[in-house]
Design a protein that fits this description.
alpha+beta, Phage tail proteins - horseshoe like beta roll fold, Phage tail protein beta-alpha-beta fold, 4 domains, 13-stranded mixed beta sheet, globular
Amino acid sequence: MSQSAAEMRQQKQVKVYDMNLMRKGVIDVYRSLIWTRKYKEAGTVELHASLNSRNLNLLQKGNIVAMTGSVESAVIEGMAADDYSNEITATGRMLSAVLSRRGIRTVVNVSNATYEDVMRRLTDIAAVSSTDPLPGLVLGEKRGFGGTVTLQVSYKDLYTYLTKLSACSNLGFRIRADYKEKKFYFEVYEGKDHSEHQTGNKRVIFSEVYRNINTATFVTNSQNYKTHAVVYGDGEGTDRTVIEAALDPAATGWERRELMVDARDIQRNELTDAQYRSALIQRGNEKLSECGIVECLEAVTLPNVNFTYKTDYDLGDIVTVHKKAWGIRMDKRITEIQEVYENGGLSIVPTFGDPLPDTVDLSDR
């Protein structure tokens, strides 16, 4: 049953808190809210509301905005007031972005641990149990996600490195604010497989045949694609340790695309030879995860057409996308969902697959 505009506005009130998770007020009338959720990095928020003293006070940098029914919250990072339009525009990112305020200030060796354990351990070292922790941040429930990995990491930005691990493992991460307990929970999570080729979960298919997608945009690009990472470890000149990691081991000839990776910062120290080689391979895999073939489809859908958003499918889930007119049928992970609230209505813009990055890191570290 569809909601009335009044019911939807009540459900999607914007609640404002300070960084101590104390409530400051509610904004229930606004022109537009674009709430963009992302699986492998922090999502974004953009709110357009009336220019008045109350909203000016609420939408200050550093305050947190939340919505009923949304597991994510966002911290306001920018605010613009415009007399001409009589409007305030507040922008920010989801709470996981605050992890960029801390760095990994030591050498961390990990041997045969799950990706989830690694992400939790690094967050604990840099932001929970450090000498200057992020106030109120704790580790959420451990779920046991991800395959095992051996690596060494030192002196990196915490948030940036977590996004690399997320890309390698296909796990999402977030910070969930608990407004009753006044705590921030760091959580690692994994989407479900709802594609047509599996049998364990409800199948979810987006197609113009079912009239649940429109205004589609398809992008594919292999400009930055690499199949092999040639990783250079310790030693000098021709005596350096060299290990190869492969995204497509069978690629040869014109299909083989090499990426040179300098990993001399990975130190043997207490690592065995096998652990050291595994750490070099992991570094290569991290770089290769940033150099895949881009293949994504973005389309507009409504939250309750054929399948119910957040009930039948959600951010991080794998679904089947069928664009019959273009001859496209693929199983893709939902890596981004943009919720657009305007004129009392809600539209959903999911991104199936990994989009082109805004910037490309060409460094070898």
